[in-house]
What does this fold into?
Amino acid sequence: MLFRSGADAVMLLRIQHERQTSGMLPSLREYRQSFGLDHARLKLARPGALVLHPGPINRGVEVVSEVADGNQSVVLEQVSNGVAVRMACLHLLAGRL
Amino acid sequence: MNEKRLLPGFCDLGCAFGEPGSEQAETIKSGLRAAARGGYSLVALEPFTDPPIDNDAQVQLVLTRAHGSACKLLPVAAAAREKGTLSEMTLLKEAGAVGVSLGDALPCNVAFLRSVLEYATQSGLAVFVHPSEPTLSAEGMVHEGEVAERLGLRGIPEDSEEIGLGILLPLVRRTGARVHLSRLSTLQGVRMLRQARSQGLAVTADVGFRHLLRDERAIESFDVDMKVFPPLRGEEDRMSLWEGLMDGTIDAISSMHRPVSSETKCAEFAASPYGAIGLETCFGALWTENGKNGNPTVAMAHYAQWLSIGPRAVLGLPPANADHEGTWWDFGSCWTPSDTTLASRSRNCPEIGQSLIPVPVALRRDGHDAPLP
It folds into this structure.
C-alpha cells in the first residue's frame, strides 16, 4: 500500500501535467488509480484527519470532489490563509527596501 | 526397458506469437498448443504484436484468449507505448502482466531507459530486455566475423551487447530495478553478467537454445531459418554460454520462439525477417545433441534446472511438481519435426527433417495424465 495509515493530515498537490516533460507519468488515469485520494484511502488516515490542498484542484485526479468538498477538508481555509501569508511576506520583505 | 520419464513442466521466458496482427503466423491458441507439445506448462509472452500489448485491456485480452489451454500464459507487456512514453505499468500489473519488456535493444534515449527502470521498480515489475546497443545492432543481420565477411553480409558486432550492458548495469545498480537479460549471446556479455551478479546485482539472464548448439557457421548455406536475433555467434561465445549455464551465471534456456509465415520468411537473406520457432524442438534438440559437437554432456537434472526451475525462479515462482504439472517423455524413440508433426502455424524451424529424442507422449496436469493437445 502506498499510503501510510494513521496520518493526522493528508496534503495534496496539483499534478502539473503541462510541465511534465520527462514523461515520468504515463497517464492521469493511472495516477488517479494509484495515488488519487478517495474515501477508501482517506479511511487509512486518523479519523477526522485534515485534507489539505493549496489549489487549484484537478478534481477527479489527485482528489475526488467528495473528499475535496467533504467535512474533513480545510482546503478553502488553507487557500484563504495562503493569501494572508503571502501578503505578510510581501509586507515584511518590502519593509526592508 | 521402460524409457518413459515424467519431467516437470518447462517454463519459457519470452516467446512471441502473432496475435493480434499476424494470426497467419501464430495465434495464442496455436502457440500454446505448440508449447504444451514441447513440454512447457508455462510461457511468458512477449508484447511486440501489431498492435503491441501496451495497455491493461490488451493484457486482459491475451489472458482471455489463453484461457483453457494446456499451457499457461503470463503476459509481459511493452515498457513503452508507441508514442515513446512510459506504459501504465501499475495498471498493467493489476491486469496480470508479470513484467515489461523493452524488446531486442535498449532505447536510444538513456534518460528514458532510466525512467523505465525507475517506474518499473515503483510498479513492482521486472524489466525484460536483450541488452544490445541499438545503433550498433540496427544495420547488421548476422554475427560480425569471418563468416559474415566471406558471405558479404553485414555484421552485428559483439560490442553491441558489451556496450549495451555497459549502459544498462550502472542504471540497474542506481535504480535497484529488477532486470532480466533476454537471449544473452556473447562471451563478454557472460563475463559482465558474472561480475555484476558477484556484486549482488539483481540481474538474471537466459540464453536461446540454438545459441548453445550452433555458431555463426550455421548461416553459411544462407538458411533464412538460422537468421535470428541476436545472431548465432562465434564458437568461443557458444562455449562461454555453456560455461555461464554450468556455473549459474545464466538462469535459463529459452526457446526464442518467433513464428514467421512462409510467405514472409522465404525471401533473400537480407530481406527475410529474423526468427525461428523453437517451443516444440528446444528440449529435443538439446537432448539429441547432448555431448556431441563440442557440447558438454549434461545430466537430466541440469536440463530440469535450466528449462523449468531456473526460469520459474526468474518469475518468482516455486519449482513445478512433475506429478502435478509435467510431461511424459519417451526416451526410447525419436520423432521428426515436419509439416505434419508441428503444431505451430509457422514452419520457420531449423530442426525440420532432423531426428529428435525424446518424444513427448502425454501431459500431466493437476495430478492426472492427459493426452497431448
Notes: The first helix of chain A runs from residue 28 to 35. Chain A touches chain B at residues 22-27, 29-30, 33-34 (CB under 8 Å).
